[in-house]
Amino acid sequence: MQTFSWLSQPGDTVRMNSVVPPAQIGFRFRSNALIGTHGIDARIRWRHAVSQSTVIRLLQVAGFALFFAASLAYAQDTVRVRGTIEHAEGQTVVVKSREGAKLKVLLADNASVVAVVKASISDIKQGSFVGVAGMPQADGSQRAIEVLIFPETMRGTGEGHYPWDLRPQSTMTNATVVHIEQTVAEVDGRVLSVKYKDGEKKIIVPANVPIVTFVPSDKSELKPGMHIFISAAKRLPDGTLQASRVNFGKDGLTPPM
């Protein structure tokens, strides 16, 4: 049980009992006003001990908020770029995006440039690590839009299943092939069973789906008219994009991812 006092006039004190939780919160209010010839001096002090568990919960909430804000800022500061090279000179590449925007891309000093080249369904083996952009099907499977066969040195890149922005509602599955159905009566193509760290998927690969892989290259190969894909360009304060990796289509190929 706690008490607090209300002083309506000097010398007058009214004490009131109040049941409060076991915390200690300080609040003080002072008001001077004239009503007739009397001044009012109001003071309220309310104290209460804040439990240790409450402080811990507040710190946890604050930590989560900071993490979420940092993640959101990162997502807003990196963009995917799909488009055609208009000009390339030194470390600078000017790209017309698929949305029609003109983008200035600055290559990082240690940027890697990689050619995207054609591959075939026969290049996909049990144990291959692949990246598949697909569309979800009613039965829970994915229908491939494209398949990337990762070089062995890139095994594990982006492993998992998550949304992708190639088309509305499309997904990306980066995983290891554990089984290949060579012939399926209902499908003109093959069905891959793939496994990633958090689950597995069945992926239908139609015969006409583009299948590609990566081959190392360098920036001297970047020419006007080439189609490129940048998975994570960093947006700089002046609006320029900075890329640590650029993928370009070899021999007129459009990177399908």
Short description, anyone?
The chain has 257 residues and is mainly beta. It has one helix at 52-77; strands at 2-6, 14-18, 32-35, 38-41, 78-89, 92-97, 102-118, 129-136, 142-149, 160-163, 171-181, 189-196, 199-206, 211-217, 227-235, 241-249. 10% of the residues lie in helices and 49% in strands.
Could you walk me through the main structural features you see in this protein, from its secondary elements to its overall organization?
10% of the residues lie in helices and 49% in strands. The strands form 3 sheets. Strands 5, 6, 7, 8, 9, 10, 11, 12, 13, 14, 15 and 16 form a 12-stranded mixed beta sheet that branches. Strands 1-2 form a two-stranded antiparallel ribbon. A two-stranded antiparallel ribbon has the order 3-4. The longest helix is centred in the N-terminal third of the chain and has 26 residues, at 52-77. The relative contact order is 0.17. It is mostly beta strands and 257 residues long. The protein is built from 1 helix and 16 strands. Strand 3 (32-35) and strand 4 form a beta hairpin. The chain has one helix spanning 52-77, and strands at 2-6, 14-18, 32-35, 38-41, 78-89, 92-97, 102-118, 129-136, 142-149, 160-163, 171-181, 189-196, 199-206, 211-217, 227-235, 241-249. The radius of gyration is 31 Å and the shape is elongated. It has 2 domains: 2-41, no CATH class; 80-257, no CATH class.
